[in-house]
Structure formats: C-alpha cells, structure tokens
Amino acid sequence: MVTSIPGGGCLRTSECGDAASKRPPSRSLLDDVATDAPWVAVVDGFRTRQPRRRDRIAEYEGLLDRGEHLRVGAEVLAGCYQPNPPAEGWLNKADGRKKRLFQYQPVDELLFRVVNRLMQPAAVEKASPWCRSFLPGGGARAAFRSVLADPDTEPKAALRLDVRDYFNSIDVRDLLSRLPEPFAEGPVGRLLTTALLDPRVVRSGRIVDGGRKGVMAGTPIAPMLATLYLRDLDREIAATGATYARYSDDILVLAPPGELPTVERLVRDRLAERGLDVNEEKSASTAPGEAWDFLGFRYEGGAIGLAPITERKLKAKTTRLARSLLRWRERKGASSTRTVGAFVRRSNRRLYGVPAERADFSWATWFLPMLDLPQGLEGLDHHLQREARYAATGRRTPRSRRLVPYSGLIDAGYLPLVSAFWAMQQGTGAYDELVSRRTGLI
User: Fold this and answer.
1) Degrees (nearest 5) of the Cα angle 310, 314, 317?
2) Dihedral sign from CA coordinates of 364, 366, 372, 374
C-alpha cells in the first residue's frame, strides 16, 4: 500500500512501520505521543468536560483499547503519518450566515488533541505577551485586564478590528514559514506540514479538493496555530507605544487620537499582506471617553459591562430554544410544567455548565467575574423568563405569567443571572454552592 504525501513523494506503509519502530535519539516535547499517558489523560479530560458526547467518548476509548494510538504515535515520531482528510461542515450562525468548520475522524481528532496538550508548554513560551489566547492563563479576562492595566486609558481613542474568518483564511505556507521552534521542525513540524498542506476534505461523503482552508476551524490544533501566527505583528504594533491586545482574531488598540490612524494603517496593511480581511461590521473606532467593546465586554465610564452584541446573542439563542421547545410540546403533547423544566435545564447548562465545566468555561464564569455591576443582567433575566413562558404557553402576554408564575420557574431550577452575579462577588465557593443548590447541576 502506498500513501501519498502532499508536495510530492510517497511512503509505503511497510517502510513506515519499519521507521516507526525506531525512536529518534533526541528528546522532544512530542516524544510522549507514542506512550499511553497523554492519550489517556486527554480522553479522561474530554469525558469529564463533554459527558454528553457518549458516541465520541466510546470511539476514543475503543482506539485506546485496540492500541491504535500507540501505532499512530510511533508513525508520527517516524515522520510518516498522514491524517485522513477532515469532513467539511457548516454551522448556522444567529445572523443567518454560515461558518465553515472541519472535523477529523476520531483517531486523527484525538491525535491532534494529544499534540495540542503536549505542545502547550512550547506555545506558552513562544506566544507573544500581547496574545495568549487558548493558552494556560491566557483567557479573555486576562486579555481585557492587560488593557486596563494602562493607567492612561481615559484620554486615548480606541480601535477594535476583527479578522474575517481568521482560522480558515490563514495562508498555510506562510504560517509554516513563520512557526517558531519546535513547531517548525522535527516530528511536529512534519505532522503539521503534512496535515495543513493536504488540500483534501470530505464533502457530502466524497473526497474533494477543499481549496483554501487555513488551519481549519473546529480542529483541535487550530486555536494554538492561530495564536502563534501573528506574533511578529503583535510585536510591531506594541513597539509603536500603543496599548495593545489580541485574542486570536480580535484586536484592540488604545492610542492618543492623533496617533491612532497611523497605527490603524499599520495593522490593516500587515493583515492585507497576509491575505487577511478585516470584518468591517465588527470593527469600530471610538473617541476618548466613549465606550469601546472587546471580547464581549463593554468599557464605559470606568466600568465594565456586557457588550450589546453579547446580550443580543444570548437573547437570540434563548428565543431559538423557546421556539424549538414549543414545537416539541405541541408535537408530544407535553405539559407546560414539563416544558418549563426542559427549558430551564437546557438554559442552565448553557449559562452555568456542569461542575466539571465551570472552572474551564460557561457563560457565567466567562462574563460574571469581569462585571462591575449587574446592569444588563436584569434584562437578560426578564428575557429568559419570558421565553420560558412562551415555550410552555405559546404566548408572550401578561396571561402567560399567570399560567407560569415565577414560583414555577424557581421550582424548575431557574437561577437568575443577577443572583449568580452577587454570589460570584462573594467568591467561587458561594457561587458554586448557589448554582448546585438552585439548578440541580451537581
């Protein structure tokens, strides 16, 4: 059997097997890919964070039981492993647009999860201090706080730029030429080159040329590569003296009004040189003292609140859930009590997660710790209550409040965001206790 390699040449699987039996003499971060430990750790973590994805968990466990992961790891170290082409899919967004996503087969998806885990220390070391998205200690809150660490934010104008379809638009050859050691060489360099330069995708069950697909949004290694790609741009912008932060495709610059246009031209020119487009609908500049948005938050008058887009997104998702459950109730003949329970359970999981997810990510743990006051949360609470009643009654009228009283929502496990906010102010212990007691997410 012959395996084609992007860029020419091929390897026979027999040759790969011979090479895979010989470990490289030098030690690297990726060497453990041919041992059980990182694979087992990744599967355990995935099982904890994604307990509802039972099918995928079973596939991962089956790979481990068969020992397939050790064969794949050995071939990666030998430089002769070629991932299967990923499946192409589309995600419907709230604004009606579609986002192109990619998903590898279970063995390759798990491989890249393991590679991501093993390469995290190197990524932390090599990433610029102005962009550490998707890396330990580099969350959105850290990026936002890094901007507010500037004591002179008030007299500065703000510029926010969003890169359109960033992950899928990255020029892969340019990326590979800019990756730092140890990503650019050795087993990981060969694996990335093989995977990223392979033009094939699975579309509607057929293998076709997928065209430009960048680092492939939806795949486990894409966030790390997207963070590393613009490191030199980060340094160049910071060297202007502007206050600067980037979170993957989201860029924020604060500078004196007279200097901001020059910095903006620099950023736009550098992005254009790499074939990256600015999404003008999500980009804006504001004068000193005016509100500016970054990573779902709004900074205004010295206080941090929710950005309007954050409120709109949550309301849109809640409305879609209510409509879906209303159709379900009518189709199944479910009672209003059962429907309210289903709405509250699904909303709670989205807002508060399950215990294993809370420390990593949920809507509440992302946003609530950053807010100075609960303004905006009251309106979201009102919307959640209204949509729960709509799912149960088909009405958004005062009568629906009589049919589904507030006490009925509380009995179903509803927890207002305002209450969660004040519990968060007391500390994570108080917050976790309230969420567990009121929602039943234990």
Assistant:
1) 140
2) negative
Identify the H or E element spanning 229: helix 222-229
Instruction: List alpha helices for 133-184, DSSP H.
Output: 140-148, 166-169, 172-178
Please state, in angstroms and rounded to a whole number, the distance separating the CA atoms of residues 244 and 249: 13
* Segment (H or E) for 192: helix 186-196
Q: How far is CA 438 from CA 360, 380, 409, 431, 435, in A?
A: 21, 18, 11, 11, 5
CB 201 within 8 A of CB 87: yes
Contacts 24+ apart (CB under 8 A), 94-98: 94/312, 94/313, 94/316, 94/317, 94/320
Work out whether strand 250-255 and strand 157-162 pair parallel, antiparallel, or are unpaired.
Answer: antiparallel
CA distance 354 to 26: 42
Asked if the peptide bond before residue 257 counts as cis, ω within 30 degrees of 0, the response is no
Residues 6+ apart with CB under 8 A from 404: 336, 340, 388, 389, 392, 393
Q: Please name the amino acid found at residue 65.
A: D
Digitized pLDDT (tens) for each residue of the chain, 442 residues in all: 333 434 433 443 334 654 444 444 456 789 999 999 999 999 999 998 888 899 999 999 999 999 999 999 999 999 999 999 999 999 887 666 789 999 999 999 999 999 999 999 999 999 999 999 999 888 788 888 899 999 998 899 999 999 999 999 999 999 999 999 999 999 999 999 999 999 999 999 999 999 999 999 999 999 999 999 999 999 999 999 999 999 999 999 999 999 999 999 999 999 999 999 999 999 999 999 999 999 999 999 899 999 999 999 999 999 999 999 999 999 999 999 999 999 999 999 999 986 544 445 689 988 999 999 998 999 999 999 999 999 999 999 999 999 999 999 999 999 999 999 999 999 989 999 999 999 986 5
Q: Which residues are bridge partners to 252 per DSSP?
A: 160, 245
3-state secondary structure of 158: strand
